């Protein structure tokens, strides 16, 4: 029987920093278990704040290095990982059991906002998280098309607390995602003209009446530009934050800055910016520069790639994540950075940093 105590192990782990956040694993409360084994080894279990944690091997290596230096008699070190998705859990007042609600917005249409929203949702699901995707882009709901979803959601009767039946919407599950969209209720060619109060009502109903169940992330694809839906969301729940998508040109970046300001006005924290359609025609790197200038995290770039459009048009967004698809690594990186930014905000400080833009 080894005589290494838990205190000795924890003492070693104080010196191991999380490679993403840069603080000790102990401070971040990421050590779930630390014990010695009968054969002179030690078992450590690390609780990651998100399924999309990018550098678990680095943590394992750092732990091994520190333990070997401080406790040279240990025969074997086993590092296990578990995930406890951190979240604000603020949907309680409207009955949502979602740890993190993430809005995806843009200054104008056509920049790939829906592509990013759907990819973020599907990517996080691939990492193992429970994810929902809500298409709140009432002016151009493209999520069902991108996911190849045509079925209308089922309406189910549920007994309410007061004994009366309540009607709820069962979201269809596509590619492992629970999906709801205005596009499932209106014909594709039907022009929907939504005014403020109607929009507010529809979004509220979508959030409350859909049987989302328990989710780690609910990704919301916002309409471009305007702040109506963001304001409604901000009044209903505490969002984890917003991702702003833009293309690299200067004009598009100006629109993105407007979107950032809009989120600031409605008190939704900005998680960061994503550059989409980077490449020869539009240039590259503009968003990263703008993000740095504004002090906003940069969450990654997605190069222009015809296959992305073809797969989106064919309802096969999941194919973009295949190992041999050139977009896959960019999409995965964007998902990891977004998930880590959410975790970082929760782990680093209870208060959100304020943005000073314009
Ligand atoms: P938005 O939601 O901002 O209006 P979409 O996500 O609907 O934009 O994208 C607009 C069009 O551009 C779609 O046909 C989509 O498939 C395509 N697209 C999006 N991102 C890329 C990219 N990185 N490379 C090539 N085509 C893209």
Q: How would you describe this structure to a colleague?
A:
This protein is α/β, with parallel strands linked by helices. The chain has 2 domains: 6-83, GMP Synthetase, Chain A, domain 3 (2-Layer Sandwich), CATH 3.30.300; 92-347, P-loop containing nucleotide triphosphate hydrolases (Rossmann fold). 34% of the residues lie in helices and 23% in strands. An 8-stranded mixed β-sheet has the order 8-9-5-10-4-11-12-13, sandwiched between helices. A 3-stranded mixed β-sheet has the order 1-2-3, with helices on one face. The longest helix has 21 residues, at 328-348. The model is unreliable at 350-358 (pLDDT under 50). The structure holds adenosine-5'-diphosphate. Adenosine-5'-diphosphate is lined by residues 106, 109-115, 142, 276-277, 302, 304-305, 308-309, 312.
CATH homologous group name of the largest domain: P-loop containing nucleotide triphosphate hydrolases
The number of domains is: 2
Distance between the termini: 64 Å
Shape descriptor reads globular
CATH class of the largest domain: Alpha Beta
Largest sheet descriptor: 8 strands, mixed
Q: Oligomeric state of the chains?
A: single chain
Q: What's the β-strand tally?
A: 13
Strand order of the largest sheet: 8-9-5-10-4-11-12-13
Q: What is the count of DSSP helices, taking H or I runs of 4+ residues?
A: 10
* Fold-level CATH name of the largest domain: Rossmann fold
Going by CATH, the architecture of the largest domain would be 3-Layer(aba) Sandwich
From the helix content, strand content and strand pairing, which structural class follows?
A: alpha/beta
């Amino acid at each position: 029987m080894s005589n290494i105590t838990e205190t000795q192990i924890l003492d070693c782990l104080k010196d191991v920093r999380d490679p993403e956040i840069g603080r000790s694993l102990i401070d971040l409360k990421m050590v779930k278990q630390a014990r010695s084994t009968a054969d002179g080894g030690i078992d450590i279990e690390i609780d990651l704040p998100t399924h999309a944690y990018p550098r678990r091997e680095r943590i394992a290596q750092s732990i091994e290095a520190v333990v070997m230096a401080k406790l040279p008699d240990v025969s074997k070190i086993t590092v296990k990982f578990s995930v406890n998705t951190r979240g604000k859990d603020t949907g309680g007042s409207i009955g949502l059991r979602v740890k993190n609600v993430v809005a995806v917005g843009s200054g104008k249409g056509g920049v790939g906002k829906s592509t990013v929203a759907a990819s973020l949702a599907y990517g996080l699901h691939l990492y193992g998280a429970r994810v929902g995707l809500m298409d709140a882009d009432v002016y151009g709901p493209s999520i069902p098309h991108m996911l190849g979803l045509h079925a209308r959601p089922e309406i189910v009767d549920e007994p309410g607390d007061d004994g009366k039946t309540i009607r709820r919407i069962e979201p269809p599950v596509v590619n492992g995602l629970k999906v709801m969209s205005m596009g499932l209720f209106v014909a594709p060619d039907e022009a929907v003209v939504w005014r403020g109060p109607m929009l507010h009502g529809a979004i509220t109903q979508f959030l409350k009446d859909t049987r989302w169940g328990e989710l780690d992330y609910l990704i919301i694809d916002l309409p471009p530009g305007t702040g109506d839906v963001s304001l409604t969301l901000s009044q209903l729940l505490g969002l984890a934050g917003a991702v702003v998508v833009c293309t690299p040109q200067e004009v598009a970046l100006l629109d993105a800055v407007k979107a950032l300001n809009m989120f600031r006005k409605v008190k939704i924290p900005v998680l960061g910016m994503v550059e989409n359609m980077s490449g020869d025609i539009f240039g590259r790197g503009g968003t990263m520069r703008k993000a740095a200038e504004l002090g906003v995290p940069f969450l990654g770039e997605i190069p222009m790639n015809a296959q992305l459009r073809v797969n989106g048009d064919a309802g096969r967004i999941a194919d973009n994540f295949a190992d041999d698809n050139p977009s896959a690594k960019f999409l995965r990186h964007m998902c990891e950075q977004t998930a880590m930014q959410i975790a970082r905000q929760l782990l680093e400080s209870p208060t959100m940093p304020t943005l000073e833009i314009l």
